Amino acid sequence: MRVLVIGAGAVGLSSAYFLAAEGADVTVIDMRGIGGGASRRNAGWVVPSMSGPVPAPGMLLKSLRWMTKRSSPLYIKPTLDPGAVRFLLAMLRHCNPQDFEAGLRHLVALNARTFELFDLLQDRGLVFEFHRQGLLQVFTDREALHEHAEELRLSEELGAGPSAVLSAQAARAEEPLLGHGVIGAISSPEERYLDPDGFVDALADACQRMGVKIHAGERATDAEFGTDGIVRAVRGQSRWEADAFVVATGAWTSDLALTFGQRLPVRAGKGYGFDVPTAGAVRTALYLAEAKVAVTPLEARVRLSGTMEFGAMNEDVDPVRAGGILESARRYLSGWPSGPTPRPWAGLRPMTPDGLPILGRLTHHHNVIVAAGHAMLGITLAPVTGDIVREMVLHDRTPSEATPFRPDRF
């Protein structure tokens, strides 16, 4: 079977990998290049226990407070775009306990094979920097600590890995760099993290060794339809025929879906980050909980990433918002980071109103499968999404854990 995967990020390449491993003839196209979207610009965390959807109870009040400060964890640029307004209103409607708990349940179930599939990729020879020593969520506010502990307790009941609340003293024993403002932490010992660059490159290399053809600089702008809604080809600078098509274009999915005649509410949430060239400065992966900043200690650098900004569809860096990440790190970590300010970067996370990915066939085009909208779980969910795409394309099966993510739920 010939399959065209549109999008060469972690989700698209994982889909291509599992399809090719079962014998499909796979081509991947991307308007930018391998990992050109958010797949390289993220924390690199593999965290099934942190599967809660972004719309959460209390988010409305928090967002109103944060809107008064540009360097806050969430910022919504004023806009008259009716599509953006509808999206934000829909997201706010999902900020209730019932929708949050249902979304958490669905995401934990989707993550059931996450560690197994990452292990499988390594067993098959993919080489990338991968750490298995867990992470700490650290807190400066006791109420926030209790709220997160309750969320992780629910995740554990649903099947995610264990977690434990630590005192400030015990947290500093795990990470001596923690400052005196930290009042406690939650340890999640089974969670993992990786170098996103190395992971994406390893996927691409493995795909190419199996004969997958990857073409950069190719944008799909039009589609050709046969009978009964079957898509025969997509066109851009070139024409690409296939038996099945996989849309894995991240934050750009909404525009591409219109090419196939379907509206999908995917909007970009801009995140920022820094790579600090200080190996060994931090020895534990940390989530600075109230600031919503991830600290990832990699072999050659420490990555800081966080914030959520809804607004323009670009990767321009707002220095005030990016600087808020460094301010937060210094509040939680004694005297770090120090020295010259590293250069910030930005990445566009694909967001949906209910905070859940889109995974399934388009309503009127049975041979088009969408795999997008993973928000901050793109790396975590990439392998399991790719394997489910394989089942859908090659066996016409939709696993039960994927049914809550159908495109037609909107």
What report would you give on this structure?
The structure is a single chain. Strands 4, 6, 7, 8, 15, 16, 17, 18 and 19 form a nine-stranded mixed sheet that branches. A six-stranded mixed sheet has the order 10-2-1-14-21-20, sandwiched between helices. A three-stranded antiparallel sheet has the order 3-9-5. A hairpin with a 2-residue loop joins β20 (358-362) and β21. It has helices at residues 10-21, 59-66, 82-93, 97-110, 114-123, 142-158, 168-174, 196-209, 253-259, 319-332, 378-395, and strands at residues 2-6, 25-30, 45-46, 74-76, 130-131, 135-139, 164-167, 184-188, 192-194, 213-216, 222-225, 231-235, 239-241, 244-247, 267-276, 285-288, 293-297, 302-310, 344-351, 358-362, 365-372. It has 410 residues and is α/β, with parallel strands linked by helices. The chain is built from eleven helices and 21 strands. The protein has two domains: 2-40 and 198-266 and 355-409, FAD/NAD(P)-binding domain (3-Layer(bba) Sandwich), CATH 3.50.50.60; 52-81 and 131-190 and 268-349, D-Amino Acid Oxidase, subunit A, domain 2 (D-Amino Acid Oxidase, Chain A, domain 2, 2-Layer Sandwich), CATH 3.30.9. The two termini are 30 Å apart.
Can you tag this structure with a few keywords?
410 residues, alpha/beta, FAD/NAD(P)-binding domain, D-Amino Acid Oxidase, Chain A, domain 2, 2 domains, nine-stranded mixed sheet, six-stranded mixed sheet, 21 strands, 32% helix
Q: How far do the termini sit from each other?
A: 30 Å
- What's the number of domains? 2
Question: What would CATH call the homologous superfamily of the largest domain?
Answer: D-Amino Acid Oxidase, subunit A, domain 2
What's the story with the biggest beta sheet? 9 strands, mixed
Report the strand count.
21
CATH topology of the largest domain: the name is D-Amino Acid Oxidase, Chain A, domain 2
Shape: globular
CATH architecture of the largest domain: 2-Layer Sandwich
Count of helical segments?
11
CATH class of the largest domain: Alpha Beta
**What structural category characterises the helix and strand content?**
alpha/beta
Oligomer: single chain
Mean pLDDT: 94
Low-confidence stretches: none
Fraction of residues in H or I helices: 25-40%
Proportion of β residues?
25-35%
**Whole-angstrom Rg:** 21 Å
